[in-house]
UniProtKB/TrEMBL annotation, chain A:
Main location: membrane
Organism: Ceratotherium simum simum
Name of the featured protein: Sorting nexin-7 isoform X1
Residue stretches making up the PX domain: 114-235
Keyword Transport: yes
UniProtKB/TrEMBL annotation, chain B:
Segments of this protein annotated with the region Disordered: 1-55
Family in the record: Belongs to the sorting nexin family.
Organism encoding this protein: Ceratotherium simum simum (Southern white rhinoceros)
SUPFAM superfamilies from the UniProt entry: PX domain
Keyword line: Protein transport, Transport
Superkingdom per UniProt: Eukaryota
KW Ubl conjugation (keyword) present: no
Protein name as annotated: Sorting nexin-4
InterPro entries: AH/BAR_dom_sf (IPR027267), PX_dom (IPR001683), PX_dom_sf (IPR036871), SNX4 (IPR034783), SNX4_BAR (IPR037430)
Domain (PX) ranges: 1-172
Gene label: LOC101404276
SMART domains from the UniProt entry: PX
Gene3D superfamilies to which the protein is assigned, alphabetical: Arfaptin homology (AH) domain/BAR domain, Phox-like domain
Length: 471, 435
């Protein structure tokens, strides 16, 4: 995989290819220009992120994780086979393609330990006097002791997912929370609830929950458990607990101010991380745009191809001697047309959702950086206050002590999660693109077979005719 | 066995008859006795080589914004010696002149068409500019093809003006114009909208006209759709090129994935640029179809000429019939048809017997003349039909061969494109899997 002796950005010099190929035709130039801001209209995780709660909570959770790792009893329940079987047993209603099934297996960190399986399906429309909204059915199967039962079925709407994400960010400000699909897509959306949109969202929501389930820390979050198990009214009352909206808003303003300061004193490794995130965000957005564009072009190609075959059939009606050849060509074109359709659907299942999720992830990451910077800034401002002897020294020193712990925890949490995230990202990207390549290979192989068999039939016929003509 | 039309006025008999053949033997279509034998042996009567390099080769130079054609041709004498004569230059307009001449002097022949004057059925990346080098090259091939077609036609290849086109540097235009062919050209043919009500149309020609209309319509349709498909295909390939650029930039920040991304990006570039050659090849295929699009017009031209001939014949017969009737009336004194003479006679008095005799005599002379003319017109008509159908049969065979070959070559192109695609994506997949 990687080669030795490379250090992050220092490699950029050695790698530089000719950027911005001038010879490119306009079609592609349109894409290359400008830095596309993330096309998502979803929530930016950095907004309104409340200050983290008790400083001890993150360390507590980490301790729980450690405990579980050592607890053999829970592990023994599952062999690898069983876990896979479980997944299959509840998936009949899930319209999974083989490719996305593979993806599901892949985003497990440790397949042997997977003990929480979640599906999102059955979108239903609800109409009230005030609004119309969609709920999704969430089915959870688990063997964990802390769950009262082994199977749960609840209905949730997008708002609930937003709430969950907010709670997770609150509880773990420097962990990389999985992204939610966008609230809505601005361009090209005539109706908010068209089928494609709902299906895309459903898949993304499922991914979201499963990513949380696979995260070593987040999976044990209490709100997450409530989300998966509580009935609708129970969830409503649970939501009402916790800091109110107004207090959260007040914290936001302070948070923004603080995060500005945090950037200046960012440690080296986080500077690197930040640079990576910025660059990555840029690139993944471009890739998202390119991939969407390819899909669009393929669709338009498909539309034109649909008309191409029939023209040959039309022609064959006036040419007695060329009927076979013309009809043969027509049928080849039609089959290639079908192969194109398949390629398109493969692309939209394997590549597009993955790339898009990482677009959202990149925004998420920027939020995480901000929050880390905030925590750091809090410490820095107290330290500054101490040195300028503005307030009570003893109190400050105590606070600083706590904050230093907090900063250390936050940084460590982020560092660990960062490594994990990067690993997942590399795997996901790799498999998504490999799948895309596979789709294309398959497409061309199909088309090749079609045309080759046509050619064989024509040359065989030719030989037949030639031998008939001979006296 | 095809014969030149009997009318001595219409066929220039070249004095030293130099049959034109192709030294490489692909076109054994030397006229006359050898034709039948050659047909059986050679791979295809009138096989046309698509690219330059052999035979009446041509290369193009651009000179003073006019398209000049630079000709090489070799003339094979009857005794088998091959002589490479001087090369000369011809403009597109001279090709047009040649063709117009052939159309007039060989009305019963399906005269090979010229390539398009302006680029049509263009898809967006293909230039519609007549000075674009790709267009110029394709036109060169088209003109070469035209010459090969004429050279391999059993009758046309014998024509002296054609021979001079290939050999006479200066004054060729004057020579052509001296034949006075423009005067011979029936101006009625130019009136595209004119319809001639023919009482007894030849069914075969009517069907042929119908066929040529359909051929033209379906090939146009096909070329239009093909151009749109090409456009879209171009888009799909080229957008992938962007992956190349972005992967490369991305690889700069990736420790693990960097190499894989970089090399995968390279393959995306290869993929994106491969479409240019693919579509260029397809353009040549489109040109092959276009030739038959224009051939449809040539077919229709033969039908029209026949129509005109038939019309003239019927008019002549009608004239004759009415004169005969007039004569009869004068002779018998009965007036069955209205005539001005008859009216004036009624009004101003009978004419004298001498006058009547004179008139009858004139009429009888005219009738004689008319009968002669009708006879020869009939003969002409029958000859025309016979020769035309012979050439049409020849044309049909050529068309079936050529179109089948073209369609097969299209399949070959698709196969090659698929193989390239498999290659590139297999390479890319390998790079991705190494990331």
């Amino acid at each position: 995989m990687g080669t030795l002796g490379r250090a992050g950005l220092a490699a950029a010099a050695g790698r530089a290819r000719t950027l911005g190929m001038e010879g490119e035709r306009p079609a592609s130039q349109a894409l290359s220009s400008g830095l596309p801001a993330g096309g998502a209209d979803g929530d930016s995780p950095g907004d309104g992120a409340p200050l983290p709660g008790s400083s001890g909570s993150s360390t507590l959770l980490q301790a729980e994780v450690l405990d579980l790792d050592e607890d053999e009893d829970d592990l023994e329940v599952f062999s690898k086979d069983a876990s896979l079987m479980d997944m299959n047993s509840f998936s009949p209603m899930m319209p999974t393609s083989p490719l996305s099934m593979i993806n599901q297996v892949k985003f497990e960190d440790e397949p042997d330990l997977k003990d929480l399986f979640i599906t999102v399906d059955e979108p239903e429309s609800h109409v009230t006097t005030v609004e119309t909204f969609i709920t999704y059915r969430i089915v959870t199967k688990t063997s964990r002791g802390e769950f009262d039962s082994s199977e749960f079925e609840v209905r949730r709407r997008y708002q609930d997912f937003l709430w969950l994400k907010g709670k997770l960010e609150e509880a773990h400000p420097t962990l990389i929370i999985p992204p939610l699909p966008e609230k809505f897509i601005v361009k090209g959306m005539v109706e908010r609830f068209n089928d494609d949109f709902i299906e895309t969202r459903r898949k993304a929501l499922q991914k979201f929950l499963n990513r949380i389930a696979d995260h070593p820390t987040l999976t044990f979050n209490e709100d997450f458990k409530v989300f998966l198990t509580a009935q609708t009214w129970e969830l409503s009352s649970h939501k009402k607990q916790g800091p109110g909206l107004l207090s959260r808003m007040g914290q936001t303003v302070r948070a923004v101010a603080l995060s500005m300061r945090g950037v200046k004193s960012r440690p080296e490794e986080f500077m690197e991380m930040n640079n990576f995130i910025e660059m990555f965000s840029q690139k993944i957005n471009l890739i998202d745009k390119i991939s969407q564009r390819i899909y669009k072009e393929e669709r338009e190609y498909f539309d034109e191809m649909k008309e191409y075959g029939p023209v040959h059939i039309l022609w064959s009606a006036t040419e007695e001697d060329l009927v076979d050849t013309l009809k043969g060509v027509a049928s080849c074109i039609d089959r290639c047309c079908k192969a194109t359709e398949k390629r398109m659907s493969g692309l939209s299942e394997a590549l597009l959702p993955v790339v898009h999720e990482y677009v959202l992830y990149s925004e998420m990451l920027m939020g995480v950086m901000k929050r880390r910077d905030q925590i750091q800034a809090e410490l820095d401002s107290k330290v500054e206050a101490l040195t300028s002897k503005k307030a009570d020294t003893d109190l400050l020193t105590e606070e600083i002590g706590k904050l230093e712990d907090k900063v250390e925890c936050a940084n460590n949490a982020l560092k660990a999660d960062w490594e994990r995230w990067k690993q997942n990202m590399e795997n996901d990207i790799k498999s998504a693109f490999t799948d895309m390549a596979e789709e294309n290979i398959h497409y061309y192989e199909q088309c090749l077979a079609t045309w080759e068999s046509f050619l064989t039939s024509q040359t065989d016929l030719h030989l037949e005719e030639a031998s008939e003509d001979k006296p | 066995m095809e014969q030149a039309p009997p009318d001595p006025e219409r066929q220039l008999q070249p004095a030293p008859l130099e049959p034109l053949g192709h030294p490489d033997g692909g076109l054994e279509t030397v006229v006359g006795e050898e034709v039948e034998g050659a047909r059986d042996e050679s791979p295809g009567d009138g096989t046309v080589r698509r690219r330059g390099g052999r035979g009446p080769g041509a290369c193009v130079g651009a000179y003073n914004r006019n398209l000049m054609l630079f000709l090489f041709r070799s003339v094979e004498h009857i005794d088998g010696q091959s002589v490479l004569t001087d090369s000369l230059w011809r403009r597109y307009s001279e090709f047009e002149l040649l063709r117009n001449y052939l159309l007039v002097y060989y009305p019963h022949i399906v005269v090979p068409p010229l390539p398009e004057k302006r680029a049509e059925f263009v898809w967006h990346k293909l230039s519609a500019d007549n000075m674009d080098p790709d267009f110029v090259e394709r036109r060169r091939i088209g003109l070469e093809n035209f010459l090969l077609r004429v050279a391999s036609h059993p009758i046309l290849c014998r024509d002296k003006i054609f021979y001079l086109f290939l050999t006479q540097e200066g004054n060729w235009k004057e020579t052509v114009n001296e034949t006075g062919f423009q005067l011979k050209a029936d101006s009625r043919l130019k009136a595209l909208n004119a319809t001639f009500r023919v009482k007894n149309p030849d069914k075969r020609f009517t069907e042929l006209k119908h066929y040529s209309d359909e051929l033209q319509s379906v090939i146009s349709h096909l070329l239009r759709v093909r151009a749109r498909v090409a456009d879209r295909l171009y888009g799909v390939y080229k957008v992938h090129g962007n992956y190349g650029r972005v992967f490369s930039e991305w690889s700069a920040i990736e420790k693990e994935m960097g190499d894989g991304l970089q090399s995968a990006g390279h393959h995306m570039d290869v993929y994106a640029s491969s479409i240019d050659d693919i579509l260029e090849d397809e353009e040549h295929y489109a040109d092959q179809l276009k030739e038959y699009l224009f051939y449809a017009e040539a077919l229709r031209a033969v039908c029209r000429k026949h129509e005109l001939m038939q019309y003239d014949l019927e008019m002549a017969a009608q004239d004759l019939a009415s004169r005969k009737q007039q004569c009869e009336e004068l002779a018998t004194g009965t007036v069955r048809t209205f005539s001005l003479k008859g009216m004036t006679t009624k009004l101003f008095g009978q004419e004298t017997p001498e006058q009547r005799e004179a008139r009858i005599k004139v009429l009888e002379e005219q009738i004689n003349e008319g009968e002669q003319q009708l006879k020869s017109k009939n003969l002409e008509g029958r000859e025309f039909v016979k020769n035309a159908w012979a050439d049409i049969e020849r044309f049909k065979e050529q068309k079936n061969r050529d179109l089948k070959e073209a369609l097969i070559s299209y399949a070959v192109m698709q196969i090659s494109m698929c193989k390239k695609g498999i290659q590139v994506w297999t390479n890319a997949k390998e790079c991705f899997s190494k990331m």
